[in-house]
Amino acid sequence: MTEARLWQLDAHEIVARTRTGDLSAEQAVGAAIERMEAVNPALNAVVQSCADQAMDRARALDKARADGAEPGPLFGVPVTIKVNVDQTGFATTNGVSALKDMIAPDDAPVVRNLQDAGAVVIGRTNTPEFSFRADTDNPLHGRTHNPWGRHISPGGSSGGAGAAVMAGIGALAHGNDIGGSLRFPAAANGAVTVKPGLGRVPAWNPSQKAERGMLAQSMSVQGLITRSAADLHLSMPSLIAADPRDPFHVPLPWRGETPEGPVRVAFTKATYGYDLHPEVDAALDTARDALADAGYQVEEIETPDAFDAGRTGYRALMGEVWALMKPDVEAYGSQTVRDIFEVYFAEFPPYHGTELLQMMAKRSHYAREWSLFLDRYPLVLSPFLPQPFFKPDRDTEGAEGVHEVLGAAVWSYAMNYMGLPAASVPARLALLPGGPQPINVQITARRWREDMAVDAAAAIEARIGRMCTHLWPLMG
């Protein structure tokens, strides 16, 4: 492969070459930066370049390797970091103009863990204001575009991350997820991700002035968006390394025990009143058949009520947002995001006072129901969204827009509320009137078994291939 095509390598391919010395960190990182400089102006996925620091770090890694240092598990892998997480010397803007000068004094655990493993940060990716939309646009950094075309939103809130990694800007993209912010961009861009369960990845921002609300703490997780399931297996063991700054991190290994016999998968097409689009229906069938071909025992069966759990959880989150976050949105947010939040509060009427405490307590009820179900069926294959991904700014179109964008996504935020891991993987390329777009499905796993969700994603990927092979020819 020539130097000009090194940006196409997945992380596991980069590591295979850098660890043998066939490829230097400087070459791998330099190719990713060249790709970023070529395609990012049209995408606006990366809003802060780290190119100079990245090249210095890559050369330092190569020198240390030459001096006898053992290369880390992610040696020379170019990565991006979302702008709502602290990286020393860079502004943690969270897409908010008022935070443009809030320079991080230290690295967040995820940044430290990636760099300790030998990864190199090449840029920081865009997020909507307050990281609280399923689309990515803000007055400070502007709009991020989907590499598949401007007929599709890039997703959010890790929209910059999803667009960047699928466009070839780095092999790994950091993101986070409180209601779907890893899985929305994965679905929009045809990428692969796993939303880790509660406590799996250490989290904290050294720049923060106060602790987040309890639901924000228990629903939000850090993760990675990749082009292949294999890259999740490669990188997540480094991301989950313990950090004492997160006192609730659970120090479990990435891989759990190998289950005996075929893994049972509960298969459902439940959309809870929303119409299931034929392309999503076909993607679910393809994913089901792929898992069956791979030896999984797939059974179509009714699961515990994801709608009740999801809606209750998001209404509780809106109650916390109303109390703790709404004043900042009103003070520092654009008119667009203030209007969107008003519709959020109408779509998900916030719980307040005693009722909020009762609904927060009910989280254990839902988690117990699902725990019992997942004891029999370790995996659940379901829709992510009932329809193909929406257009940019759909959530600015009042109640109907928010109802389509977030209201329909109960399979997403239900898993955040219960703290369960959930992977997203493309299972179909739909040829729609507006243009081609990927269709992702979701795989929920029992607690602490992100690895099983990723294994299933890999089985689906083995049948349908990776979406980047279709995307890159379209990009030129």
Automatic annotation (TrEMBL):
Residues 28-452 form the Amidase domain. Keywords: Hydrolase. InterPro entries: Amidase_dom, AS_sf. Signal peptide: none annotated. Pfam families: Amidase. PANTHER family: AMIDASE-RELATED-RELATED (PTHR46072), GENERAL AMIDASE-C (PTHR46072:SF5). This is Amidase. It comes from Ruegeria marina. The lineage of its organism: Bacteria, Pseudomonadati, Pseudomonadota, Alphaproteobacteria, Rhodobacterales.
